[in-house]
Write a structure and sequence with these properties.
It is a single chain. By secondary structure, the protein is an alpha+beta fold. It has two domains: 6-214, no CATH class; 230-422, no CATH class. Helices cover 22% and strands 34% of the residues. The protein has nine helices and 24 strands. Strands 1, 2, 3, 4, 5, 6, 7, 8, 9, 10 and 13 form an eleven-stranded mixed sheet that branches. The chain has a five-stranded mixed sheet with strand order 11-12-20-19-18. Helix 1 (115-126) crosses helix 2, helix 2 (133-158) crosses helix 3 and helix 2 (133-158) crosses helix 9.
């Protein structure tokens, strides 16, 4: 690989999309340039775009910038943080081309641009862009690695004769994981499901540009293969294995890293054992990500994340009425009154991979970690690393459930808050990367 990859990012899927183009954009298939305000909708199965020069129609419409640096497109009312506690709409500006296609009877807006331009935005969108230069360099490398690995994986899946399955269901168990291979017409989406990408709206911090430019083309590799370099907000003290969150494939470089220079004294760190996990979760072991230093946290947490300060250890309480109603709506199954939530399988970080829900009408095991988080929250629990406390039991039915939890996110790979602390303490970007990803190499691929 010696050419800068061009990627496509799914931005939004709506019945109607309003957007504006600043500068001259070439309209694909026509010898004309356009600019100004536009509105797109679906008519008779095709895209219909109304703009300053009238209507444009077609199965696929592409607007190419005449100059990627000086031209800019803006999408109106883009939803960010979909189904998370910070969900909101905002107008967002982007470099590159705009492709419009029809999916599911609606319009999908896709941004097409070089990967390095994309990364400048991602680093700023994922964090506040006030981070140390070494953290920004580390994040540029893992975001680049992850994206190229996803593109390669997507190509293998599309060329395979075997259908890719991420759901397994029986009468007694439901297992599902969420990954990026369900995007058929673009490489990645723009939200937390993939990587936060919010265009030039947040992308022009000089340190971010410097970090991306100084690591251009550099990736993490393991035995010559580009790493699927996952990351999350806060591991909770120990990182999780890839296969406990996604497909059952082991990546040796994504292992149960203890997020501390040494094992915290007084703890058994095999958190697959329920007793060890409970002691870990109910305590506050030393870890890079165990911090309340606001100077560091503001490097990683954007304004819509800042309300979530209790992430290393957290607590959620539900009444019987609340939890039974929540499970009925989120799982689309009627468990009746909830009698118990029983850990069946924990991962290396203490995160639940399988949880048995015992109800007065139905008993079922659910997994993996994100599906557990979805069923037990209006949006998502911070993580699936939690213990269950039952209170006020009447006739065998608890009237209150308290979940005591650890960490924020799936916990695989780099821990953003832990890495921010490392950068703040003076660790260099390669030291940060080699802490979270084991036995990897840094390679310049283009």
């Amino acid at each position: 690989m010696n050419k800068i990859p061009v990627i496509s990012v799914g931005m939004m899927n709506r019945e109607k999309i309003d957007f504006s183009l600043t500068g001259d954009f070439l309209l694909s298939g026509r010898n004309e340039t356009v600019s100004g305000n536009f509105s797109a909708s679906v008519e008779n199965g095709e895209i219909s775009v109304s703009g300053p020069s009238g209507k444009i129609s077609g199965k696929e419409i592409v607007f190419e910038p005449s100059n990627i640096e000086s031209c800019e497109l803006e999408l109106k009312n883009v939803t960010i943080g979909v189904n998370f506690h910070w969900e909101q709409n905002e107008n967002q500006r982007f470099q590159g081309a705009l492709k419009l296609i029809v999916e599911g009877g609606k319009i999908t807006a896709i941004n097409v641009l070089p990967i390095e331009n994309y990364l400048i935005s991602v680093i700023s969108s994922e964090m506040s862009a006030k981070s140390s230069l070494d953290l920004l360099k580390a994040h540029a490398i893992i975001s680049r690695s992850w994206l190229i690995a996803q593109i390669e994986k997507q190509g293998k899946i599309s060329g395979s004769q075997t259908a890719y399955k991420s759901i397994s269901e029986t009468d007694d168990e439901y297992t599902r994981w969420y990954d990026r291979e369900d995007h058929l017409h673009f490489h990645v989406c723009a939200d937390d499901h993939c990587q936060r990408y919010q265009g030039t709206t947040r992308s022009h911090n000089p340190n971010v540009v410097k970090a991306v430019n100084e690591t251009a083309g550099v990736v993490l590799s393991y035995r010559g293969t580009i790493c699927d370099a996952r990351f999350s907000k806060c591991c909770g003290g120990i990182a999780e294995l890839f296969e406990n969150c996604w497909e059952p494939v082991n990546h040796p470089y994504l292992t149960n890293v203890i997020d501390n220079p040494s094992v915290p004294a007084g703890f058994e760190t095999d958190l697959t054992i329920d007793e060890n996990a409970a002691r870990w979760i109910h305590s506050s072991p030393d870890a890079f990500c165990n911090t309340r230093d606001e100077e560091v946290l503001r490097q990683v947490l954007n304004e819509y994340d800042w309300s979530a300060k209790n992430f290393y250890r957290w607590k959620v309480e539900y009444s019987q009425e609340q939890i039974s109603d929540l499970l009925r709506r989120q799982s689309r199954r009627d468990f009746g009154q909830v009698i118990d939530l029983i850990p069946v399988e924990r991962g290396k970080s203490g995160r639940l991979v399988r949880l048995r829900i015992v109800g007065s009408k139905k008993t079922m095991i659910v997994g993996k970690e994100l599906e557990i988080r979805r069923w037990l929250s209006e949006s998502h629990l911070y993580s699936s690393a939690f213990t269950v406390e039952k209170q006020d039991i009447h006739d065998g039915i608890p009237q209150k459930f308290i979940l005591h939890g650890a960490g924020w996110g799936h916990g695989v790979g780099l821990c953003q808050i832990g890495a921010a602390v490392m950068g703040h303490k003076g660790y260099k970007y390669d030291e940060i990367l080699l802490h979270y990803y084991k036995d990897v190499d840094l390679e310049k691929r283009y």
